[in-house]
Amino acid sequence: MTQTIIVIIYLVLLLGLGYLSGRLFRGNSNDFFVASRSIGPVVLFMSIFGTTMTAFAMVGSTGESFRVGVATYGKIASSSALIHSACFFMVGLPLWALGKRNGFHTQIEFFRSRFESRKIGYLLFPILVGLIIPYLLVGLMGAGSVMQGVTRGAFPDLFSSTGGAVPPWLTALVISCVVLYYIFAGGVRSAAWANTFQTVVFIIMGFIAFVTISSKLGGMQVASSMIDTAKTVRSGNITELQFFSYCLIPLSVGMFPHLFQNCLTAKSARSFKLTLIAHPLAIMLTWIPCILIGLWATGAVMPDGGTPVIPEGASPNAVLGMMVGKLTTPIIGGLVTAGILAAVMSSLDSQFVAVGTMFTKDIVVHGFGADRFSEKQLVMLARGFICFIVLVTYLFTLVEPRQVFSLGIWCFSGFAGLFPLVFASIYWKRATKAGAYAGVIGGALMWLVLFQASGFGADKEYSIGGTMPVVPIFFTCAIALVVVSLFTSAPSQTTLDKFFTKKS
Questions:
Q1: How many domains does the chain have?
Q2: What is the per-residue pLDDT for 338?
Q3: Which of 9, 63, 169, 185 is the most buried (most CB within 10 A)?
């Protein structure tokens, strides 16, 4: 009960923050979509880092390290620490400059202009939204799993079907409503403010959870001695081919619509400096405690005897919640749970705003003309589509669940597979409209075929020739884009001047 009360208080604080940020909302679409491009370095770093640290990082990494061991850190965190910052520098900065110069609000606006194609947006929109929905699903599933693990036995009469725990469907519903409220209030500015607050919360609470759990288990040395030795080595848990193919996954940040939009909110190029330097350190501070908690869970026993903390057959999604619920005090457990939910919500809000922006700017305004809508109507259109996407995502949480880490990898593989498109559009003058179509269609079809072959993510060990699915997806997109571009007409000189001539 105590944990639930603390979480409720935290959610009320978020509602208050949403109300305050909404008071600064200027009432126009530019402020709702990109905060009038006024975000400074600290808030930009917090919003970008908070957006990348999803339930995948907190809940998924703990569950995956419990399932396969220490190799989890090598799979994603080690490469992400470097590749994310490289993407922000090589992709985020140029896109910010081009976006500010040409008034872009979305990726699709950029690609339409760069490839001289009005229709490419109608191809990209369903693909990007289709990949965002699993990403949103990861967040809601992670939040539900954690609350269920932490509150187990707290409400035996009210929720008997879940062992007295708050059911995942209720957690997902409440989280969705809270996030909807504060982004409705102020759009991307509210999301940035909330991300700043929530990033601080989940970093601090993650550290508290790490220290408290290790202390309860007898200290780091004792806790580490309990680890299942089969999970402390690479052999049998990850191959060389898997490791190197996982290095492509972090390229997904270069194609995330919500990160593109976050980059556009920056006040100046200098605003990126803190993000480029601090992001790798922040990843380390977040991932290492989660990985270690998952490893300790493989052999951890309760202090009062030999009862395993994690019962046999437990879902990897529930590991973090169980460790927090069983090895911390009710107050600390509530605070840590609030921190985990903060990580979840700090990505959901940006994703919600991104899909609303794309629908409004890339479908409605592009199809019917900007002059047909007032600023208020544009904001309402974005809010309406956000509600639709939230509803669809919530309904998906009610069907058979998937492991958070596995579903996240499939989502990231799709975005990473499209990375050649954005990279070529920035650095290769010869990239053409036909090449872009070929790359997008090829990559999307390959992702769909492989996702279906894996049982829609159910087969966690699915691979192609020992490599992760991201490899054929990435190279299908890259090869199709390059080959078709070489055999089709180059973009006009006007377009090349627009995108490749530096302005003073």
A1: 1
A2: 87
A3: 63
